[in-house]
Amino acid sequence: MNNQEIFTPEERDENEERKRELIELVVSGEAVLMVGAGSSARVGYVTWDGLLEELEKLANRFGEGLDQNRKGDALAYAEDIKSHISKEMNGLSRYYALLQNLFSPKDPPFTDFHAKLVALPFRGILTTNYDTVLEAALGDIEPRFAYDNWLVIDENSAGQVNEFLMAMNNDKRMTRRIAHLHGRFNLPSSIILSIEDYRRIYGLGISTNHVQKDSEWTLYRKLLWAVLATRRVVFIGFSMTDPYFNKMLETVSADLWRWDKSIHFAIMSISSKNAKNSNKNAENLKTRADGLRREYGVDTIFYEDSDNSHQELDRILDEIGEACKVRNQPKTDDMDWSEQVNQRMERGIDDEN
User: Fold this and answer.
1) How far apart are CA 301 and CA 266, in angstroms?
2) What are the backbone dihedrals phi and psi of residue 127, each rounded to the nearest 5 degrees, phi first?
3) Which of 138, 174, 143, 172 is nearest to 159 (CA)?
4) Residues spanned by the domain of 229
5) For the segment 190-206, what is each residue's pLDDT rounded down to a tens digit?
6) Is 278 exposed, middle or buried (0-12, 13-18, 19+ CB in 10 A)?
7) pLDDT by residue (tens digit) across 306-339?
8) Which of 103, 128, 145 is the last residue of a domain?
């Protein structure tokens, strides 16, 4: 893997500096984790594109006539698929059954990556995923909370939302929980998938990234605003292209006058030169990263991924984990904690060699 071909020396140094700042934030125990679908793909769950393909197959089994004019707009196309299915008797039951089947627990239910992730000292964990990968990993660490470490955000969850926020304030009466922002597989009617679902929970409509209406501040929207406005969030498994989510980031930036300020972090992969059109794609990703910082206060830490193994992401988690261990150790000398982390990581590399 040749870093020179994707990053200039200055870009590499800047990326390393951002990674150092990310590590310091997580070690401080002040960060909140936001997890997207890219994380669950490691266990074998379908990505967004794969989910649309499965739903399209189901729609086609109900006969011809599926409107594909909006296929380029994922959320709108998901709405058209759902509408097509719902016209048939028992169609929605089949729709929800498919979602339950696609996102039910796998065997094994999580990977070492997820165990490392939830073991880090995040104040709270939120996810847009429908599966139970994160709570399975967290339950393995804290078995007595295994059956009570999650909640689904909807109009009836005000009490649970309050407990979730209290837990982020280090209330010892509360255990960490996984907040499912877009529903959970075992509550299929809670799943947020189509454009009308998004409009309902966000209280606004967006078309081609432009706001159409701003009708109400739903509980869901209030929670997101509170988290993004008062916490520093680390995004993992996100493409950062969801127009509704980006609208919330934009709203918080506008409300608090934090334009062009680094508040949150997103960890994202970038392809090596062996991938098709990767040089162009890499430049597009870097341009998008500039926009995320400028418009939403989100700094991007890139890791190279030539074979879709995401090994470099695992190494970043290892670095954060090592830093946490060092920070929690009693000080035995005047060596800076970051120097201790570097020495431990170097010893690990030497052992591998």
Assistant:
1) 6
2) -145, 150
3) 174
4) 3-45+108-352
5) 999 999 999 989 887 77
6) middle
7) 888 899 999 999 999 999 998 877 655 555 655 6
8) 103
